[in-house]
Amino acid sequence: MSTTTTTAGTTTLARTVTDVLQPRNALLAGMLGIGLAAAGDWTGLLWGFLGALCAGLIPAGYIEWERGRGTWGDRHVVDRTKRAPIFFVILGSIGAGSVVMVLENAPGGILVAMLALWVMTIGLLAVNTVWKISVDSAVASAVVALLAVVHSPWWLAAYALTVAVCWSRVALGYHTVAQTVAGAALGAATTVAYAFG
Q: pLDDT of 160-182, one tens digit each?
């Protein structure tokens, strides 16, 4: 097998991993699980969907809208200097979702998870002003860490998926190893915010 074929295969696999495990998908699956644990019954799925909508789906929609306007070339927004508006949309969206949760007496666990993600986003924004950090790695790590806290430590095995996300980001040339490790570490730190909530 030629080096070119191997490289093309690696790129294709990395692209698939990064697309399947992108933040909106990770947050959709993760927040549904967190909501279920927080409520203890099926109503938690509704709260989880609201969380996923605010933390992942609305920001992803904003990115697609800006892409359509020609602001960015793709959803990855590889130029860190253009990322600030995205972080502000995420903060506003999570904030609005959290207000709805407070007003509608959502289970405490899902609200605390939202606030933990809000704090993580502040950290991503702060770091991004001086250095490019991997948002995909941070979200993948945060989802696994939060699921491990609310459901079972066995969820830590899903960090294999976070490692896959980190690898894909490096393989595609979007980030360095250090940037993905920093993102994953910041994501894991959401459990600290969760614990204090």
A: 999 999 999 999 999 999 999 99
pLDDT beyond 60 at 2: no
pTM over 0.85: yes
SS3 for the chain is CCHHHHHHHHHHHHHHHHHHCCHHHHHHHHHHHHHHHHHCCCHHHHHHHHHHHHHHHHHHHHHHHHHHCCCCCCCCCCCHHHCHHHHHHHHHHHHHHHHHHHHCCCCHHHHHHHHHHHHHHHHHHHHHCCCCCCHHHHHHHHHHHHHHHHCCHHHHHHHHHHHHHHHHHHHCCCCCHHHHHHHHHHHHCHHHHHHHC
